[in-house]
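Worked example

This section walks through a single chain of length 141. The input is the sequence exactly as stored; nothing has been trimmed or padded.
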Amino acid sequence: MASPSPENSLHLWRSRAIDAFASAEASIDLLLRKANLPSKGDLLSARIERLRKAKPSAGWPEERKNKLNQILVELAALLPLRNDIVHAPMIVRTDRDQAIACFANPTLQCEFSRFTREVPAPRLQALAGKASYLAKALEAV
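Given that input, the structure is written out below as tokens.
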């Protein structure tokens, strides 16, 4: 079986990262419901912050809450990159035989310039792995 082309590998890792972020988001919504906290269709960053600000309780001992907060901090640090890979089309360019995913998030553009995030395949693969790890950690909390 032939290995996927470098461009197809980028699409694969992007898809896996998006799926992992979606799993993490579903876990956050479930945790909010269990804590009787509304999610109100807020942005993911607001829901993460609402969970972080929740006080430990009988159903959520302090040790478990601290672990949750650590996971949430790590996830929040990835949100700018998540926003780009979710909300921007991916353009693939090649640099010295290396495929690089380029994302130009439309919310970061103006009439004079645009911000483009460039992610080589190994880093996109690492992001997918990290997001998947965090999603599983949230499920286990």
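What to look for: The first helix runs from residue 6 to 34.
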